Amino acid sequence: MKIRIFLLLLIFVACEDKKSNENENISSANFDIEINENTGENYYINPFDVAPMTAGINFRYTDEMENSSISATVSIKSPKNQIDFVKEYSFNPDTSKQWLPIVGMFEGENEVHIAVEEKQSQNVLHDTTYTIKLDLLDSDIGRANEAYMSGDFPGDEMIFVLYNTSVARVRFTGIVYDSDGNIRWYSAIPGSFMQFVIDDLLYVGFKGEKINSLEVYDFFGRKIKEWDLPGYEDIHHDIIKNEMGNLVLTVSKDDSSPVEDRLIELNPNSIQANKIVNSVDLSVIFPNVDELFGDLPQLQIGGTREDHVHNNSVSFYKRNGQTVF
């Protein structure tokens, strides 16, 4: 069920002789908030189904003022420990629906104060406090048997940690912790394997036969973009961005060759259908030492493909003006 709330700002002035002067630079505006009541409250938890500790409100700003924009401040407080967390957002006015994100909430009860104002006139368009309760499920988080940091939460306020959250099988989940050890965000992206924070966005790799894609999300859970990687699969242990803005990924070739021994460089802004601009075969660089250890069979993935090099990391530096991986 969706409820539409229309706020028409009326400007009242106590002194009649000041009314005309004060209204010269102030306009009224329509601020259309579309609320999805999946919780029975005036917010929508996890609107994109992949970030369970987020919430949001859909809105449309319909003012016709030129060169105008609106700004929103979201303040989150945990009544349990009285910690404040504030994020500010800016939007350009248009008639399309947009989301006001609520990201960085605590487990349990959250007091979320949202204030929206028109920048030019500083008219308050929306000012409301919501009570949002979040429950962390053990089945979502799991028990970690290995973990490492792979970035910072946007704004560097918190740490993003990549956990192997399953003992029975490899299932990585990205979790954001604050300095007090509180979980403030976690990922529920289906089938994801590796997740890396680059420039405040979450790059997600998938591991599995014939899975040839790389995806990028914001922390609200919106998928920003997806790239096809023809001929490659198993985006696994590392993703970096080089000085040209290209992404370098550790991958496997999409054939019967040994796994986890390739690097590819992806130009995310290329207009070409195939955006892979460079590749490296590490099995050519590193020697084959099979004959030195005849009593030790090569490690195999799923009992079918050999794993000779098993590269888990990538970095780069410049030599003679060229990038070297």
Walk me through this protein's architecture.
With 325 residues, this protein is mainly beta. The chain has three helices and 26 strands. It has helices at residues 16-23, 138-141, 282-285, and strands at residues 2-8, 30-36, 44-45, 54-61, 70-78, 83-91, 98-103, 108-118, 124-134, 146-152, 159-164, 172-177, 183-186, 192-198, 201-206, 213-217, 223-228, 232-233, 239-241, 247-253, 262-266, 276-281, 300-301, 305-306, 317-319, 322-324. Strands 1, 2, 3, 4 and 7 form a five-stranded antiparallel β-sheet that branches. A hairpin with a 2-residue loop joins strand 25 and strand 26 (322-324). The longest helix is centred in the first third of the chain and has 8 residues, at 16-23. The chain is elongated. The protein starts with a strand and ends with a strand. The model is unreliable at 1-28 (pLDDT under 50).
Produce a short descriptive summary:
This protein has helices spanning 16-23, 138-141, 282-285; strands spanning 2-8, 30-36, 44-45, 54-61, 70-78, 83-91, 98-103, 108-118, 124-134, 146-152, 159-164, 172-177, 183-186, 192-198, 201-206, 213-217, 223-228, 232-233, 239-241, 247-253, 262-266, 276-281, 300-301, 305-306, 317-319, 322-324.
